[in-house]
Protein backbone atom coordinates (compact mmCIF):
# COMPACT_ATOMS: atom_id res chain seq x y z
CA UNK A 1 0.00 0.00 0.00
CA UNK A 2 1.87 3.09 -1.24
CA UNK A 3 -0.07 5.87 0.46
CA UNK A 4 -2.73 4.51 2.82
CA UNK A 5 -4.55 7.85 2.71
CA UNK A 6 -5.50 7.08 -0.93
CA UNK A 7 -7.70 4.29 0.47
CA UNK A 8 -10.89 4.21 2.51
CA UNK A 9 -10.82 3.65 6.27
CA UNK A 10 -11.90 -0.01 6.08
CA UNK A 11 -9.18 -0.75 3.53
CA UNK A 12 -6.46 0.89 5.63
CA UNK A 13 -7.66 -1.16 8.62
CA UNK A 14 -7.03 -4.37 6.69
CA UNK A 15 -3.90 -3.53 4.72
CA UNK A 16 -1.92 -0.54 5.99
CA UNK A 17 1.50 -1.21 7.46
CA UNK A 18 2.08 -4.69 6.11
CA UNK A 19 5.60 -5.38 4.84
CA UNK A 20 5.70 -8.83 3.31
CA UNK A 21 8.96 -10.76 3.82
CA UNK A 22 10.58 -12.81 1.06
CA UNK A 23 8.70 -15.86 2.38
CA UNK A 24 5.61 -14.44 0.66
CA UNK A 25 3.34 -14.86 3.69
CA UNK A 26 -0.21 -13.57 3.20
CA UNK A 27 -1.01 -12.82 6.85
CA UNK A 28 1.37 -10.54 8.76
CA UNK A 29 4.39 -12.26 10.30
CA UNK A 30 5.19 -12.20 14.04
CA UNK A 31 8.80 -11.40 14.90
CA UNK A 32 9.34 -12.66 18.46
CA UNK A 33 12.97 -11.64 18.70
CA UNK A 34 14.65 -9.46 21.30
CA UNK A 35 17.55 -8.35 19.08
CA UNK A 36 18.54 -8.18 15.41
CA UNK A 37 21.82 -9.24 13.78
CA UNK A 38 24.09 -7.16 11.57
CA UNK A 39 26.03 -8.20 8.50
CA UNK A 40 29.23 -6.65 9.76
CA UNK A 41 30.78 -4.61 12.53
CA UNK A 42 30.52 -1.58 10.27
CA UNK A 43 26.79 -2.10 9.80
CA UNK A 44 26.31 -2.47 13.56
CA UNK A 45 28.16 0.80 14.07
CA UNK A 46 26.08 2.54 11.39
CA UNK A 47 22.81 1.30 12.94
CA UNK A 48 23.82 2.37 16.43
CA UNK A 49 25.12 5.68 15.11
CA UNK A 50 21.85 6.35 13.32
CA UNK A 51 23.48 6.67 9.88
CA UNK A 52 21.64 3.58 8.67
CA UNK A 53 17.98 2.92 9.48
CA UNK A 54 16.98 -0.54 10.69
CA UNK A 55 16.26 -2.70 13.69
CA UNK A 56 18.65 -3.05 16.61
CA UNK A 57 16.69 -4.25 19.62
CA UNK A 58 12.96 -4.83 20.22
CA UNK A 59 12.75 -2.24 23.00
CA UNK A 60 13.48 0.26 20.18
CA UNK A 61 11.69 -1.17 17.15
CA UNK A 62 10.17 -4.47 16.08
CA UNK A 63 8.65 -5.25 12.65
CA UNK A 64 5.36 -6.63 14.04
CA UNK A 65 4.93 -3.69 16.39
CA UNK A 66 5.73 -1.36 13.48
CA UNK A 67 2.99 -2.92 11.36
CA UNK A 68 0.48 -2.31 14.16
CA UNK A 69 1.76 1.26 14.59
CA UNK A 70 1.60 2.12 10.90
CA UNK A 71 -1.87 0.63 10.58
CA UNK A 72 -3.28 2.51 13.59
CA UNK A 73 -1.59 5.75 12.47
CA UNK A 74 -3.24 5.35 9.05
CA UNK A 75 -6.62 4.78 10.72
CA UNK A 76 -6.36 7.79 13.08
CA UNK A 77 -4.89 9.99 10.35
CA UNK A 78 -1.66 10.60 12.30
CA UNK A 79 1.91 10.89 11.03
CA UNK A 80 3.29 8.63 13.75
CA UNK A 81 2.17 6.02 16.25
CA UNK A 82 4.02 4.19 18.99
CA UNK A 83 2.79 0.98 20.59
CA UNK A 84 3.02 0.68 24.37
CA UNK A 85 2.75 -2.07 26.98
CA UNK A 86 -0.67 -0.84 28.16
CA UNK A 87 -3.04 2.10 27.87
CA UNK A 88 -1.58 3.52 31.08
CA UNK A 89 1.94 3.25 29.63
CA UNK A 90 0.70 5.31 26.66
CA UNK A 91 -0.53 8.06 28.99
CA UNK A 92 2.62 7.92 31.11
CA UNK A 93 4.91 8.06 28.07
CA UNK A 94 3.02 11.04 26.64
CA UNK A 95 3.32 12.97 29.91
CA UNK A 96 6.96 12.05 30.53
CA UNK A 97 7.98 12.94 26.99
CA UNK A 98 6.09 16.22 26.66
CA UNK A 99 5.97 17.71 30.19
CA UNK A 100 8.50 18.83 32.78
CA UNK A 101 8.47 19.98 36.40
CA UNK A 102 6.51 23.20 36.75
CA UNK A 103 4.04 22.36 33.98
CA UNK A 104 0.30 22.07 34.53
CA UNK A 105 -2.39 19.79 33.06
CA UNK A 106 -6.10 20.52 32.85
CA UNK A 107 -8.06 17.27 32.72
CA UNK A 108 -11.73 16.44 32.63
CA UNK A 109 -12.99 15.07 35.97
CA UNK A 110 -14.55 12.08 34.31
CA UNK A 111 -11.48 10.18 33.16
CA UNK A 112 -10.46 6.56 33.65
CA UNK A 113 -9.84 6.08 37.40
CA UNK A 114 -6.22 4.99 37.05
CA UNK A 115 -5.51 8.05 34.89
CA UNK A 116 -6.67 10.22 37.81
CA UNK A 117 -4.33 8.28 40.14
CA UNK A 118 -1.41 8.60 37.71
CA UNK A 119 -1.92 12.36 37.55
CA UNK A 120 -2.64 12.93 41.26
CA UNK A 121 -0.32 10.44 42.94
CA UNK A 122 2.66 10.22 40.63
CA UNK A 123 2.96 13.17 38.25
CA UNK A 124 2.51 15.61 41.14
CA UNK A 125 5.60 14.04 42.80
CA UNK A 126 7.63 15.22 39.82
CA UNK A 127 6.29 18.74 40.01
CA UNK A 128 3.52 18.53 37.40
CA UNK A 129 0.27 20.05 38.72
CA UNK A 130 -3.19 18.93 37.61
CA UNK A 131 -6.62 20.60 37.73
CA UNK A 132 -9.87 18.78 37.02
CA UNK A 133 -12.87 20.39 35.32
CA UNK A 134 -16.38 19.28 34.29
CA UNK A 135 -16.06 17.62 30.89
CA UNK A 136 -18.64 19.50 28.85
CA UNK A 137 -18.07 22.97 30.34
CA UNK A 138 -15.78 24.90 27.95
CA UNK A 139 -15.81 27.98 30.20
CA UNK A 140 -14.47 25.85 33.07
CA UNK A 141 -11.64 24.56 30.83
CA UNK A 142 -10.77 28.10 29.86
CA UNK A 143 -10.85 29.36 33.47
CA UNK A 144 -8.56 26.52 34.63
CA UNK A 145 -5.79 27.30 32.10
CA UNK A 146 -2.75 28.98 33.70
CA UNK A 147 0.36 30.45 32.11
CA UNK A 148 2.19 27.15 32.83
CA UNK A 149 -0.58 24.90 31.41
CA UNK A 150 0.84 22.70 28.67
CA UNK A 151 -1.76 20.00 28.18
CA UNK A 152 -5.54 19.59 28.11
CA UNK A 153 -6.51 15.96 28.65
CA UNK A 154 -9.94 14.51 27.86
CA UNK A 155 -12.00 11.37 27.22
CA UNK A 156 -15.14 11.73 25.11
CA UNK A 157 -17.62 10.10 25.58
CA UNK A 158 -16.93 9.75 29.29
CA UNK A 159 -17.15 6.65 31.44
CA UNK A 160 -19.78 5.73 32.62
CA UNK A 161 -22.22 8.60 31.91
CA UNK A 162 -21.34 9.08 28.21
CA UNK A 163 -20.91 12.84 28.44
CA UNK A 164 -19.22 14.50 25.45
CA UNK A 165 -16.98 17.47 24.89
CA UNK A 166 -16.87 19.44 21.64
CA UNK A 167 -13.37 18.33 20.59
CA UNK A 168 -13.05 20.94 17.85
CA UNK A 169 -13.91 23.79 20.23
CA UNK A 170 -11.59 22.41 22.91
CA UNK A 171 -8.74 22.11 20.38
CA UNK A 172 -9.23 25.75 19.36
CA UNK A 173 -9.12 26.80 23.01
CA UNK A 174 -6.01 24.70 23.64
CA UNK A 175 -4.15 26.16 20.68
CA UNK A 176 -5.19 29.73 21.44
CA UNK A 177 -3.59 29.28 24.87
CA UNK A 178 -0.46 27.45 23.74
CA UNK A 179 -1.52 24.01 25.01
CA UNK A 180 -1.68 20.55 23.49
CA UNK A 181 -4.99 18.69 23.35
CA UNK A 182 -4.67 15.00 24.22
CA UNK A 183 -7.75 12.80 23.62
CA UNK A 184 -8.14 9.27 24.99
CA UNK A 185 -10.13 7.71 22.11
CA UNK A 186 -10.72 4.38 23.82
CA UNK A 187 -14.53 4.45 23.80
CA UNK A 188 -15.02 5.40 20.14
CA UNK A 189 -11.88 4.09 18.42
CA UNK A 190 -10.97 5.62 15.03
CA UNK A 191 -13.87 3.68 13.52
CA UNK A 192 -16.29 6.16 15.14
CA UNK A 193 -14.25 9.27 15.95
CA UNK A 194 -11.00 10.71 14.66
CA UNK A 195 -9.85 13.38 17.12
CA UNK A 196 -6.81 14.48 15.04
CA UNK A 197 -9.11 15.54 12.20
CA UNK A 198 -11.07 17.58 14.77
CA UNK A 199 -7.91 19.43 15.80
CA UNK A 200 -6.55 17.32 18.68
CA UNK A 201 -2.76 16.94 18.82
CA UNK A 202 -2.41 13.49 20.35
CA UNK A 203 -4.64 10.42 20.57
CA UNK A 204 -4.23 7.84 23.34
CA UNK A 205 -5.46 4.26 23.14
CA UNK A 206 -5.91 1.40 25.51
CA UNK A 207 -5.59 -1.31 22.83
CA UNK A 208 -6.78 -3.69 25.56
CA UNK A 209 -10.35 -2.62 24.80
CA UNK A 210 -11.96 -2.40 21.35
CA UNK A 211 -8.74 -2.56 19.29
CA UNK A 212 -8.22 -6.10 20.53
CA UNK A 213 -11.96 -6.52 20.89
CA UNK A 214 -11.85 -9.99 22.34
CA UNK A 215 -10.31 -9.47 25.76
CA UNK A 216 -6.97 -11.19 25.12
CA UNK A 217 -4.04 -8.80 25.52
CA UNK A 218 -3.09 -5.63 27.41
CA UNK A 219 -1.55 -2.87 25.28
CA UNK A 220 -1.76 0.76 24.26
CA UNK A 221 -0.73 3.35 21.70
CA UNK A 222 0.00 7.04 21.19
CA UNK A 223 -0.80 8.64 17.81
CA UNK A 224 0.16 12.13 16.60
CA UNK A 225 2.74 14.05 14.63
CA UNK A 226 6.24 12.90 13.67
CA UNK A 227 8.03 15.28 16.03
CA UNK A 228 6.11 14.85 19.30
CA UNK A 229 5.10 11.21 18.94
CA UNK A 230 7.57 9.85 16.38
CA UNK A 231 10.58 11.42 18.14
CA UNK A 232 9.77 12.48 21.69
CA UNK A 233 7.26 9.87 22.91
CA UNK A 234 9.19 7.19 21.00
CA UNK A 235 12.42 8.43 22.59
CA UNK A 236 10.97 8.11 26.08
CA UNK A 237 9.62 4.62 25.38
CA UNK A 238 12.80 3.17 23.91
CA UNK A 239 14.69 4.51 26.92
CA UNK A 240 12.25 3.75 29.73
CA UNK A 241 10.97 0.48 28.28
CA UNK A 242 7.15 0.11 28.54
CA UNK A 243 6.98 -1.00 24.90
CA UNK A 244 4.53 -3.37 23.18
CA UNK A 245 5.42 -7.03 22.74
CA UNK A 246 5.43 -8.37 19.15
CA UNK A 247 2.92 -11.07 20.03
CA UNK A 248 0.46 -8.54 21.46
CA UNK A 249 1.03 -6.24 18.48
CA UNK A 250 0.05 -9.09 16.16
CA UNK A 251 -3.17 -9.75 18.10
CA UNK A 252 -4.06 -6.04 17.99
CA UNK A 253 -3.28 -5.61 14.32
CA UNK A 254 -5.52 -8.55 13.46
CA UNK A 255 -8.13 -6.89 15.71
CA UNK A 256 -7.89 -3.70 13.65
CA UNK A 257 -8.90 -5.64 10.52
CA UNK A 258 -12.39 -6.23 11.94
CA UNK A 259 -12.70 -3.01 13.97
CA UNK A 260 -15.20 -1.26 11.67
CA UNK A 261 -17.49 -4.27 11.51
CA UNK A 262 -17.31 -4.88 15.23
CA UNK A 263 -17.90 -1.24 16.19
CA UNK A 264 -20.94 -1.09 13.89
CA UNK A 265 -22.34 -4.20 15.56
CA UNK A 266 -21.58 -2.88 19.08
CA UNK A 267 -23.39 0.38 18.16
CA UNK A 268 -26.42 -1.41 16.72
CA UNK A 269 -26.83 -3.63 19.77
CA UNK A 270 -26.28 -0.73 22.15
CA UNK A 271 -28.94 1.46 20.50
CA UNK A 272 -31.55 -1.30 20.65
CA UNK A 273 -30.68 -1.95 24.29
CA UNK A 274 -30.76 1.75 25.22
CA UNK A 275 -34.17 2.27 23.59
CA UNK A 276 -35.59 -0.80 25.30
CA UNK A 277 -34.25 0.22 28.71
CA UNK A 278 -35.68 3.72 28.26
CA UNK A 279 -39.13 2.20 27.75
CA UNK A 280 -39.09 0.30 31.08
CA UNK A 281 -40.90 1.82 34.09
CA UNK A 282 -38.27 0.36 36.50
CA UNK A 283 -35.54 2.38 34.77
CA UNK A 284 -35.12 5.96 35.98
CA UNK A 285 -32.79 7.17 33.25
CA UNK A 286 -30.64 5.87 30.39
CA UNK A 287 -27.31 7.42 29.36
CA UNK A 288 -26.48 6.77 25.70
CA UNK A 289 -25.45 9.41 23.11
CA UNK A 290 -27.62 7.71 20.48
CA UNK A 291 -30.85 8.49 22.34
CA UNK A 292 -32.73 11.68 21.50
CA UNK A 293 -33.03 12.23 25.26
CA UNK A 294 -29.22 12.52 25.56
CA UNK A 295 -28.48 16.23 26.12
CA UNK A 296 -25.59 16.11 23.62
CA UNK A 297 -27.23 13.91 21.00
CA UNK A 298 -26.66 16.54 18.27
CA UNK A 299 -22.97 16.91 19.13
CA UNK A 300 -22.60 13.12 19.10
CA UNK A 301 -24.15 12.98 15.62
CA UNK A 302 -21.78 15.68 14.39
CA UNK A 303 -18.58 14.50 16.07
CA UNK A 304 -18.91 10.72 15.91
CA UNK A 305 -19.94 8.39 13.10
CA UNK A 306 -21.56 6.03 15.64
CA UNK A 307 -22.68 6.28 19.25
CA UNK A 308 -20.53 3.54 20.76
CA UNK A 309 -21.10 0.36 22.73
CA UNK A 310 -21.43 1.67 26.29
CA UNK A 311 -24.91 2.09 27.79
CA UNK A 312 -25.43 3.17 31.38
CA UNK A 313 -28.76 3.26 33.17
CA UNK A 314 -30.16 4.00 36.57
CA UNK A 315 -32.70 1.68 38.12
CA UNK A 316 -35.25 2.71 40.72
CA UNK A 317 -34.41 1.40 44.20
CA UNK A 318 -30.72 2.30 44.54
CA UNK A 319 -27.91 -0.15 45.20
CA UNK A 320 -30.18 -3.02 46.21
CA UNK A 321 -32.11 -2.89 42.96
CA UNK A 322 -28.94 -2.44 40.87
CA UNK A 323 -27.21 -5.41 42.48
CA UNK A 324 -30.39 -7.48 41.99
CA UNK A 325 -30.24 -6.79 38.24
CA UNK A 326 -26.53 -7.66 38.10
CA UNK A 327 -26.85 -10.82 40.18
CA UNK A 328 -29.89 -12.05 38.24
CA UNK A 329 -27.92 -12.19 34.98
CA UNK A 330 -26.87 -15.64 33.83
CA UNK A 331 -24.89 -14.82 30.69
CA UNK A 332 -23.42 -11.30 31.04
CA UNK A 333 -19.93 -11.10 32.55
CA UNK A 334 -19.71 -9.24 35.88
CA UNK A 335 -16.41 -7.48 35.24
CA UNK A 336 -15.11 -3.95 34.92
CA UNK A 337 -13.55 -4.48 31.48
CA UNK A 338 -15.13 -3.19 28.28
CA UNK A 339 -14.66 -3.40 24.53
CA UNK A 340 -15.08 -7.16 24.37
CA UNK A 341 -17.24 -9.37 22.15
CA UNK A 342 -18.74 -10.53 25.47
CA UNK A 343 -21.18 -8.13 27.13
CA UNK A 344 -19.97 -6.93 30.53
CA UNK A 345 -21.98 -5.44 33.41
CA UNK A 346 -20.60 -3.20 36.17
CA UNK A 347 -21.87 -1.34 39.25
CA UNK A 348 -19.70 1.79 39.05
CA UNK A 349 -20.50 3.16 42.54
CA UNK A 350 -18.94 0.13 44.28
CA UNK A 351 -16.22 -0.80 41.75
CA UNK A 352 -14.67 1.63 39.25
CA UNK A 353 -15.80 4.66 41.28
CA UNK A 354 -15.75 2.96 44.71
CA UNK A 355 -12.74 4.91 45.94
CA UNK A 356 -14.51 8.26 45.61
CA UNK A 357 -16.32 9.69 48.64
CA UNK A 358 -20.15 9.59 48.45
CA UNK A 359 -20.10 13.37 47.92
CA UNK A 360 -17.63 13.09 45.02
CA UNK A 361 -19.76 10.36 43.46
CA UNK A 362 -22.90 12.44 43.84
CA UNK A 363 -21.10 15.44 42.25
CA UNK A 364 -20.14 13.26 39.29
CA UNK A 365 -23.65 11.83 38.96
CA UNK A 366 -22.59 8.26 39.85
CA UNK A 367 -25.62 7.15 41.86
CA UNK A 368 -26.16 3.85 43.68
CA UNK A 369 -28.75 2.70 41.16
CA UNK A 370 -26.41 3.16 38.18
CA UNK A 371 -25.40 0.16 36.05
CA UNK A 372 -22.93 0.22 33.14
CA UNK A 373 -23.25 -2.26 30.32
CA UNK A 374 -20.50 -2.58 27.71
CA UNK A 375 -22.66 -4.13 25.02
CA UNK A 376 -21.01 -7.05 23.21
CA UNK A 377 -21.68 -8.95 20.04
CA UNK A 378 -24.11 -11.60 21.32
CA UNK A 379 -27.66 -11.59 19.92
CA UNK A 380 -29.36 -8.51 21.35
CA UNK A 381 -32.43 -10.57 22.30
CA UNK A 382 -30.26 -12.70 24.61
CA UNK A 383 -28.66 -9.63 26.21
CA UNK A 384 -32.12 -8.15 26.80
CA UNK A 385 -33.47 -11.41 28.20
CA UNK A 386 -30.54 -11.61 30.64
CA UNK A 387 -31.11 -8.06 31.90
CA UNK A 388 -34.87 -8.53 32.05
CA UNK A 389 -34.48 -11.23 34.71
CA UNK A 390 -33.60 -8.72 37.42
CA UNK A 391 -35.67 -5.87 35.99
CA UNK A 392 -38.85 -7.90 36.11
CA UNK A 393 -39.41 -6.64 32.56
C1 LIG B 1 -8.71 0.82 30.24
C2 LIG B 1 -8.53 2.25 29.95
C3 LIG B 1 -7.27 2.87 30.07
C4 LIG B 1 -6.04 2.13 30.57
O1 LIG B 1 -5.68 1.12 29.70
P1 LIG B 1 -4.89 -0.22 30.16
O2 LIG B 1 -4.67 -0.92 28.88
O3 LIG B 1 -5.78 -0.93 31.13
O4 LIG B 1 -3.63 0.23 30.81
C5 LIG B 1 -7.17 4.21 29.75
N1 LIG B 1 -8.24 4.91 29.34
C6 LIG B 1 -9.48 4.35 29.23
C7 LIG B 1 -10.60 5.19 28.78
C8 LIG B 1 -9.66 3.01 29.53
O5 LIG B 1 -10.88 2.47 29.43
TrEMBL record:
**Encoding gene per record:** metZ
Q: Which domain of life is it from?
A: Bacteria
What HAMAP family would the database entry show?
A: MetZ (MF_02056)
Any single GO BP term: transsulfuration
Query: Which residues are annotated as modified residue N6-(pyridoxal phosphate)lysine in the UniProt record?
Result: 209
> Keyword Amino-acid biosynthesis: yes or no?
yes
Q: Which GO terms describe its molecular function?
A: carbon-sulfur lyase activity; pyridoxal phosphate binding; transferase activity, transferring alkyl or aryl (other than methyl) groups
Coiled-coil regions in this chain?
Answer: none
**Substrates-to-products reaction catalysed:** O-succinyl-L-homoserine + hydrogen sulfide = L-homocysteine + succinate
The record's section on NCBIfam families has: O_suc_HS_sulf, PRK08133.1
Q: What is its EC number?
A: 2.5.1.-
Quaternary structure, per UniProt, is: Homotetramer.
In this record, what's one Pfam family? Cys_Met_Meta_PP
Q: In which pathway does it act?
A: Amino-acid biosynthesis; L-methionine biosynthesis via de novo pathway; L-homocysteine from O-succinyl-L-homoserine: step 1/1
What protein name applies here? O-succinylhomoserine sulfhydrylase
What GO cellular-component annotations does this UniProt entry give? Answer: cytoplasm
Q: Which UniProt keywords apply?
A: Amino-acid biosynthesis, Methionine biosynthesis, Pyridoxal phosphate, Transferase
Cofactor requirements of the protein: pyridoxal 5'-phosphate
Q: Does the keyword Transmembrane helix apply?
A: no
State what this protein does: Catalyzes the formation of L-homocysteine from O-succinyl-L-homoserine (OSHS) and hydrogen sulfide.
Q: Which protein family is named in the record?
A: Belongs to the trans-sulfuration enzymes family. MetZ subfamily.
